[in-house]
Amino acid sequence: MLRLQELTKTYKTGDQALKTIDLDVPKGQVLALIGPSGAGKSTMIRCINRLVEPTSGAVLLDETDLTRLGSGGLRKARREMGMIFQEYALVERLTVMENVLSGRLGYVGFWRSFLRRYPQPDVDEAFRLLDRVGLLHMADKRADELSGGQRQRVGICRALIQNPKLLLVDEPTASLDPKTSRQIMRLITELCQERGLAAIINIHDVALAQMFVPRVVGLRFGEIVYDGLPTGLSPDKLTEIYGEEDWEATIEKVEDEDDDIEAAE
Amino acid sequence: MSHRELDDMLGKGWRKPAFVKNATLRWTLLAGFVTYMIAAFMTIEVDWGRVYDGLDRGWAFVLAFTSPDFMSRWSDIWSGLLESIVMTVAASVVGILISIPIGLGAARNIAPLPVYVVCRGIVAISRALQEIIVAILLVAIFGFGPLAGFLTLSFATIGFLSKLLAEDIEAMDKVQAEAIKASGARWVQWINYGVQPQIMPRLVGLSIYRIDINFRESAILGLVGAGGIGATLNTAFDRYEYDTAAAILILIIGIVMALEYLSGIIRARVQ
Amino acid sequence: MPVLEHEGTQIWRRRTTGENLIRWFGWLLGVAVFLYCWQIISASTTWFFVWDAPRIADDIWTRATPPKWEYITQLGRPIWDTLNIATLGTLIALFLAVPVAFLAARNTTPSTLFIRPLALLIIVSTRSINSLIWALLLIAIIGPGVFAGVIAIAIRSIGFCAKLLYEAIEEIDHSQVEAITATGASRWQVMAYGIVPQILPAFAGIAVFRWDINIRESTVLGLVGAGGIGLQLSASLNVLAWPQVSLILLVILAAVVISEWVSAKVRGAII
Q1: Which of A3, A144, A157, B69 has its CA 20 to 30 A from that of C209?
Q2: Are residues C35 and C122 in the same domain?
Q3: Mean pLDDT of the C117-121 span
Q4: Is B107 strand, coil or helix?
Q5: Is residue C64 part of a domain?
Q6: Which chains neighbour A (Cβ–Cβ under 8 Å, 3 or more pairs)?
Q7: C-chain residues within 8 Å CB-CB of A113?
Q8: Angle between helices B196-221 and B146-170 (to 10 degrees)
Q9: Distance to chain A for C171, nearest Cα, Å
Q10: Rounded distance, CA A251 to CA C98, Å?
Q11: Closest Cβ opposite residue B9 in set A116, A118, A127
Q12: Considering the domain boundaries, does residue B44 fall inside one?
């Protein structure tokens, strides 16, 4: 359903963030993108919905090349791709409900959105989603009153209300504690299953990725160096992705690794 | 907030919660605002014919900016500008020197109560009286000329700088100052070692900002006879010499820009 | 660290000799400039009047007290005009400052090369020139009256508001904007949902802050004929009606104190 063909991105500074990436994501598949900081994970996700303009190559979503779209076409294409962010990226001074409904901005006109007059089905769907993630009673709270885990749930609702085919998830757990991280990962993967969504989850926590996804893609210096099952991630492979380190601990003692990473945040 | 059932909410509309929760208050505020606006517009007397006639002159003035005339009244412009600069420099120096002790006195954490009250009083009076009104009074007392302007700007500098300085001292890090006190320093040594290093960068930044303001203010003091470029500008407007007026305005803008640029550099260095 | 060898012992100095020399030279230059400035001011001052100042001040004081209280009945309309000049001027300024600020902010300007410098030029030029000068100019163009005062205050405030606002826009959290963009929102929707909510508190603060300043400024605009209570002040000064002058000054003082109190309250409520 989503196909990246020879996608490259070179920044103005000359840094080559992505070197000819080829990737195929079938319908309904959830995959994790792992790799060290600066490997190009964030750039790759942003090149798909063109928050970052790719330098060359093609991004095919259901046979439409997104890189060739004009601004109107791009907006329509972005509606098909929900995005979930690292620091939640909620509009903090708006209410939870407004944040969720902002996922419909691509579908409603300016004045309707400006006056907050959303169509009734959208409002109902927003209520259903908030109920699904257990935040219905928070609907009229301002986003900055929420805890980290709650904010990320709102972020998930905002992405899902777009009714997307694909979720682009950028480090969803980076600023959360270990327990909340797992809850959020579980929620995302469950919702993808319920709705048959494909997802690319950009994540630096290898153990967490192994727990929840059926396919892992490893990125290093802008190149794909691993693509396969999470169980296939041997210490050798991890060394290839991240560099030299004692990996046995990571793979076996999942719990500890979790805490260490969170403590390091 | 109690948990609400999803079924109750489905199918019902949703409105953004209002900024002012109380509906009566909200509508009263809105109605009051609208009434005020109507009343305000009704009482402004605008002679539209005069405004329409003025458009030509306005356009002439805009055009004057493309061909400002520096030369025909250059000696007036130069003497006025020099007087403005002189007043600015002298008043800034005197004002800053006086505002340091007053600023120290107006900080509650280092000054005893009687001193604090007196210094805060001076600050309040200086801030409440605007430059131009002070200038009118001083011109009446000391006669026309830059002395009145110099005194006005010094007085205004004291109110501005002392207040901000005192606020800065009140917000300083107590621990550093305590450490110096603990070493057995006298009051003056304590100020020199414990307080001064903490507030110095901000004092420099504020002083430069005040010099900038003093220059801008010095441009209007001439309107009431207190010296500076304002008198020249006023004459130019009276004679409808827009090209000369444009030249003066360009000079003022240029000097203010230069001062802002300079203050940016200096502030970056002392940080 | 500069350490001197002196008769076999090492003496610590804060600065090297060279640095000391430069510093002393700098101070010397500063003092020389100040003395020069003072000399110019002194040369254009009639010292006879200055020595006579205490007597004149005393004379004015006896004439001005007590204020002519019954004159207040004639000040109602001028006070209303003053309030209108400040409020309407602020509203117009805010209305115009918003687009200028968006054009000036690095992250929202359509073109850094052409439009941003233009917006910055508008900001600098309107900000550098005092509202009294703008009033002078507008009176020459559209004639004296409240309307000239409103426009003068509006023009002067554009630069001030736009500067603070564009700094607020440049400081917004970019990820929130990115998130709204990723939903497929249009340019205007990104503005309304991603940017405006983030700068709204700053905007409200700026509006009230500027309104407070504008009340002060509009009280004196009348001195050059632009309406408000300053007209009465200038008329009273011209006929040397000191009891009226003192009453007007008291009224202005009260207006300034009240507006500062209101603005502090409102800003406290917003933040």
Answers
A1: A144
A2: no
A3: 91
A4: coil
A5: no
A6: B, C
A7: 185, 189, 192-193
A8: 150
A9: 14
A10: 55
A11: A127
A12: no
CB-based contacts of C121-124 (< 8 A; 24+ apart in sequence): C122/C158, C122/C159, C122/C162, C123/C158, C123/C159, C123/C162, C123/C163, C123/C166, C124/B253, C124/B256, C124/B257, C124/B260, C124/C159
Rounded Cα distance between A182 and A176, Å, is 9
pLDDT at C97 over 90: yes
**Does residue C52 sit in the same domain as residue C79?**
no
Enclosing domain of residue B118: 70-270
Place of tokens 């089905």: A121
Report the number of distinct structural domains present in chain B.
1
Q: What is the pLDDT of residues C43-85, one digit of tens each?
A: 887 787 778 888 888 888 888 888 888 888 888 888 999 999 9
Its domain, for residue C46, covers 3-57
Domain CATH code at residue B214:
1.10.3720.10
C53 and C78: one domain? no
A159 to chain C, closest Cα gap in Å? 8
Burial of C85 (0-12, 13-18, 19+ CB in 10 A): buried
Distant-in-sequence, close-in-space partners of C4: CB < 8 Å, separation ≥ 6: C10, C11, C12, C13
Kindly tell me if the per-residue pLDDT of C204 is higher than 60. Answer: yes
Q: How far apart are the first and last CA of chain C?
A: 47
Structure tokens, B74:
């250059």
Nearest 5°: phi and psi at C34? -60, -45
Q: Which tokens in the block code for residue B200?
A: 């110095």
Q: Is residue B41 part of a domain?
A: no
* Long-range contact set of residues B246-251: C-beta below 8 Å, sequence gap at least 24: B246/B61, B246/B64, B246/B65, B246/B68, B246/B69, B247/B68, B247/B69, B247/B70, B247/B77, B248/B77, B248/B80, B249/B65, B249/C129, B249/C133, B250/B65, B250/B68, B251/B77, B251/B81
Q: Is B49 part of a structural domain of the chain?
A: no
Q: Please tell me whether residues C147 and C214 are part of one structural domain.
A: yes
C144, part of any domain: yes
Q: Tell me what pLDDT residue A98 has.
A: 92
Nearest-by-CA chain A residue for C176:
A89
Residue whose pair of structure tokens reads 């606006």 in the numeric block = B37
Q: Over the stretch A54-93, which tens digit does the pLDDT of each residue have?
A: 999 899 988 889 888 888 889 989 999 999 988 888 998 8
Percent share of chain B, pLDDT over 70? 98
Number of folded domains that form chain C: 2
Q: Do A89 and C179 touch (CB under 8 A)?
A: yes
Chain C residues with CB-CB distance to A202 below 8 A: none
Residues of B in contact with C247 (CB under 8 A): none
**In terms of CA atoms, which chain A residue is nearest residue C190?**
A105
Q: So what's the ipTM on this one?
A: 0.84
Judge whether A116 and B16 are in contact, CB under 8 Å: yes
| C88 plus C36 within the same structural domain | no
Looking at the structure, tell me whether residues C50 and C79 fall in a common domain. Answer: no
Q: Which two tokens stand for residue C102?
A: 């968006």
The vertex-B117 CA angle with B115 and B120, nearest 5°, equals 105
The reply to whether C117 falls in a domain is yes
Main-chain dihedrals φ then ψ at residue C11, nearest 5 degrees: -115, 130
Is residue B136 within 8 A of residue B149, CB to CB? The reply is no
Q: Do B4 and A137 touch (CB under 8 A)?
A: yes
Three-class secondary structure of residue A2 per DSSP: strand
List of chain B residues whose C-beta atoms are within 8 Å of the C-beta of residue C80: 43
pLDDT single digits (tens) B124-162: 888 888 888 899 888 888 888 888 899 999 999 998 999
CATH number at residue C106: 1.10.3720.10
Task: Tell whether C84 and C136 lie within a shared domain.
Answer: yes
Question: Is A6 strand, coil or helix?
Answer: strand
Cβ contact C263:C208 at 8 Å? yes
For residue B81, being part of any structural domain is answered with yes
Domain-embedded: residue C205:
yes
For strands A64-65 and A56-61, give the pairing. Answer: antiparallel
The whole-angstrom distance between B33's CA and the closest CA on chain A is: 21
Contacts of C60 in chain B (CB under 8 A): 137, 140-141
